[in-house]
Amino acid sequence: MKRLVLSLLLAGGLLGPRTILAASATVRSGALEMPADCALVTNEHPRLLFRQRDLTAYKGRIAGPMAEDFQRFRAWWDRKIAVPGYDWKSAEEMDGVALGVLYQLTGQRRYADAVRRSSLLQTGSIFWAYHFAVDLVFDTLSPEEIRQQADLFLKGADEKYRYNRGWALWPAIVLHGAASGREAQVAKWLEQGVRGAAERIAEADEWAANRGGDVNSFSYVRWKSHPDYSQWTTDPFRRSVVLGTSP
Fold it and tell me: Using CB atoms within 10 A of its CB, is residue 71 exposed (0-12), middle (13-18) or buried (19+)?
């Protein structure tokens, strides 16, 4: 199997017995290789939006040049979670990420608890904001809650990630190294998530190179005048639902 390299940006992962390569300062297991100081090797949280070592600089900014902005931000969320019955219900809303950041910056457990008590953490989600939020409050989760998150991730995973295995990368990163009792399955999805993410990046690059936009852009107002328009309608790879039916 061609060896995959998991960059520090994607946080890295271990799939079995560790082999530390002193010469290159990397850790390798199975098909994955990552820097020896990445968050998955050191098993620390948070590991997606930022790392513990970043917090000193961030706290300095909110105590200095960003103090006023931060206080307004914090006050807004304080008011929101103080409303009786407050509940984070949708991963399309940024509540969990914002509250997780507040927990990390202030150390006040009430922000993490607002995430932990939300109904969304009982049902799970495939969307990135959910996994970023879980990562930000991970050190407040009980062993039972960690096992629950692993169960939510892995339940029906083959179907959930059937068309985009790259989406499995975020939960696999968050749950790697956790005592969930499902370590082997999480490791499998970490490897598949890395491969899937690489495929999606390649697809997005191809789209941008040939269509003048990106994979999320539908504003191609000059499709017909574009020199490659004929290829869009004849090349099976380059033809999309949008370009093929609504040029």
Answer: exposed
